[in-house]
Design a protein that fits this description.
It is built from 16 helices and 12 strands. The protein has a single domain (about 5-280, about 295-380), classed as 3-Layer(aba) Sandwich (Rossmann fold). By secondary structure, the protein is α/β, with parallel strands linked by helices. About 30% of the residues lie in helices and about 10% in strands. It holds the Pfam family Lipase_GDSL. Belongs to the 'GDSL' lipolytic enzyme family. This is Putative esterase.
């Protein structure tokens, strides 16, 4: 884990550069159209993943009756930003929502504020006219600026393999990685020209986010009888499947079905972000459902050590495979940049030391922005109104109170569950997913570093 004053302090050099959608803001402030559009780094974003990234596919992909049974299709999901459920697994926006509204920014400007205690400035960029990323299953959607293939319950391994190892039903697999790749293939005619060169040119200027994937593979194993050691035996296969997915995509449009798969990179994808998995041993769902009677299984933060060690093993293996992939394509005619997004380190810091991070509003002359402030050693001289996250491990939305506020039979969105008054004071939303406030911070750590290697906007 990064030390205080190290990785977190380095965010100042990455995110505190006021990319706050300046390519949209500056021309407007100057009173003219300007050339902001020419400075945008990406023209679209395409996402694959699970519930950490699903912006609505799970509800679009099910019947109305089935949707009513989904807990995250019920209040209080969506309460913070949207005011109603959107089938996002949070109280508001997800990490991909914040990424999607910032990737259009290429020019970077130093903020007028230069205090080492500030670790993030984040703007609700939708107010500047930038769209949220639409779910790919939405009928009639405009996907030229991007599409989201992620869906709740997605696994890296396909259903047939999981079934072969005894994990058929009752696991809830709505769209494994290979299925999402097929969805992307079906969207291509509406995204770019069907000729190879047309798509290649368009995709080379787009950002691809491949994951997080793998978490539900472990869930299927751990919640249905596998030990951590047994699940660990499948980590190399899970990681190799993710790497294969980064490279391969159903390619009938490109080569008229001559072969089954084509390399995604060969299609023109040149900017690919691949997130790891979270420190699941620190989330209420796992702490409740997989509790241990052995005190040595818990670390000093109250997290389940074996589960976090599994996450670390997965992430270490994934980083090694990605490094090999980057080496392979470094000398390609069209350079490819593969970025590892570190969920684990940043989320672990938020969960372990939630009070370290606080919020404050400032005015930069034309637009109000929300800061997330490093409160270690004080509030940095910003006066009153700065308060840190009050809770890390405890779920904001749940039932039962206590250390975790989580009951499986009264999960968020179900009868008996309720949300806390201020979700932004919590890191954990529903026992397994993070709040909008935490998601904003994670996105900032990926955009400017140091929690993405290399940072997306560098």
């Amino acid at each position: 884990m990064a030390r205080r004053g190290g990785a977190l302090a380095a965010v100042v050099d990455g995110v505190l550069v006021c990319w706050l959608c300046w390519c949209a803001v500056q021309p407007a402030l100057a009173g003219g159209g300007g050339d902001g559009g020419k400075r945008c780094k990406y023209n679209a974003m395409f996402v694959f993943g699970d519930s950490l990234a699903d912006t609505g596919n799970i509800c679009v992909n099910k019947s109305a009756a089935a949707t009513l049974l989904l807990t995250f299709a019920q209040p209080p999901y969506g309460m913070t930003y949207f005011g109603h459920p959107t089938c996002r697994c949070s109280d508001g926006r997800l990490v991909v929502d914040f990424l999607g509204t910032h990737i259009h920014v290429h020019a970077r400007r130093r903020a007028a504020i230069a205090d080492s205690k500030i670790i993030l400035i984040a703007n609700a960029a939708q107010e500047l006219g930038l769209p949220l990323l639409p779910p790919s299953k939405r009928s009639g959607g405009d996907f030229r600026r991007g599409a989201n293939m992620a869906i709740v319950g997605a696994t890296a391994l396909d259903f047939d393999f999981l079934k072969s190892i005894g994990l058929g039903y009752p696991i809830w697999n709505n769209g494994a990685m290979n299925v999402q790749l097929q969805w992307f293939h079906h969207l291509l005619p509406s995204i770019c020209a069907t000729q190879p060169q047309g798509c290649r040119a368009y995709l080379s200027k787009s950002l691809f986010m491949f994951g997080s994937l793998g978490g539900n593979d472990y869930n299927a194993m751990l919640f249905f009888g596998f030990t951590v050691d047994q699940a660990r035996n499948y980590t190399p296969k899970i990681v190799d499947t993710i790497i294969a997915g980064v490279e391969a995509i159903n390619q009938s449009i490109i080569q008229k079905m001559l072969v089954q798969f084509l390399k995604l990179i060969a299609m023109g994808a040149a900017e690919i972000v691949v997130p790891g998995v979270m420190p699941v041993g620190c989330f209420p769902l796992y702490l409740t459902m997989l509790r241990s009677s052995n005190r040595s299984d818990y670390d000093e933060h109250g997290c389940l050590r074996p589960l976090n060690e599994l996450s670390i093993y997965h992430n270490t293996l994934l980083q090694g495979r990605l490094a090999g992939l980057q080496t392979r394509y470094r000398a390609a005619p069209a350079p490819v940049r593969i970025m590892y997004a570190d969920y684990y380190t940043m989320v672990a810091q938020l969960l372990h030391t939630p009070a370290r991070f606080g919020k404050q509003l400032i005015n930069l002359g034309a637009v109000w922005f929300e800061l997330v402030v490093d409160l270690m050693g004080g509030n940095g001289g910003y006066g009153g109104g700065v308060a840190g996250f009050r809770s890390g491990i405890t779920a904001c939305c749940g039932a039962g109170g206590g250390e975790y506020n989580y009951e499986f039979e009264a999960r968020c969105g179900m009868k008996g569950a309720a949300a806390c008054r201020d979700p932004s004071s919590h890191v954990c939303w529903d026992g397994v997913h993070t709040t909008e406030a935490a998601n904003r911070l994670i996105a900032g750590g990926w955009l400017g570093g140091p929690y993405c290697h290399p940072p997306i906007l560098h």
